[in-house]
Design a protein that fits this description.
Length: 78
């Protein structure tokens, strides 16, 4: 399964659960997660990886940075 297929799977799951999902393509911050999901009073950032994919140090930093602001994050591997 490609990362794009895994991403589509996660988007479908989140949308089926009532989330509004946006794929982030270009941001002002390198390493920001691939997806942002929004639900009433809730936000989730999702980094999508293949099962054996490696999260870079910058991606790890961004996930921790978001968590410091009280935002939920996840690494989704399908």
């Amino acid at each position: 399964m490609t990362e794009q297929q895994i991403q589509k799977k996660r988007i479908d799951q989140l949308e089926a659960d009532g989330w509004y999902v946006i794929k982030l393509i270009k941001t002002n911050k390198n390493g920001i997660p691939d997806l942002v999901a929004i639900k009433k009073d809730d936000v989730l950032f999702v980094e999508v990886k293949k099962p054996n994919g490696v999260v870079s140090k910058l991606q790890e930093y961004r996930l921790k940075e978001l968590e410091k602001y009280g935002i939920k994050t996840e690494i989704y591997r399908g």
